Amino acid sequence: MASTEHGPGLAPPTFTDQPRILIVAAPFYRDIADNMIAGAQAALEAAGCAHDLLEVPGALEVPTAIRLAENHYDAFVALGCVIRGETTHYETVCNDSSRALTLLGIERKICLGNGILTVENRAQAEVRADPKQMNKGGGAAEAALHLLVLSRRFRGASGADTVMATGGDLV
Predict the structure, then answer these.
(1) Counts of helices then strands in the chain (DSSP H, E)
(2) Which of 86, 134, 135, 162 has the most other CB atoms within 10 Å of its CB?
């Protein structure tokens, strides 16, 4: 049984200028992806963001799709699920998708939240994807938004004073 214990984390930021966010989801496990998408959409709407959804075949395609769309959105949410099987393919998909997303953030300065689940079994995935339980889709969306706040702060972007950071401080 998967544990649902997790800390409260940072308070989600809110925006008044409606940034555009792209959710890129790999619906290999449709029910799990749909729950994660629902969690991400709810978090983005609560923060005052506009969002689009793009689906790709699998977790390995998520980073490429984000790279292709990087100039059209303010931030990105990567969603998918990789469940361990009987071969080493699990390690390849987990490591390569995670590494590619990390490099996009570091090298391209893309604000993104990584919500690609890497789990041992379906039960763990279901708990993590469910918006009423661990809500990893919502968490990935909030991570992307926190990075967007930081990006605007350090870039000195105009309109940055319209972004509310944790604790209600203007950034």
Answers:
(1) 5, 6
(2) 135
Question: Per residue in 98-111, is it b (16+ CB within 10 Å) or e — as a string?
Answer: bebbeebbeeeebb
CA dist list (Å): 62 to 23, 48, 75: 10, 24, 14
Say how far apart CA 123 and CA 56 lie, in whole Å.
23
Q: Does 89 participate in catalysis according to the annotation? A: yes
The DSSP code for 156 is T
Quote the tokens at residue 40.
Answer: 């991400």
pTM: 0.89
Q: Which helix (H) or strand (E) covers residue 136, if one does? A: helix 136-155
Options 6, 51, 72, 89, the catalytic residue: 89
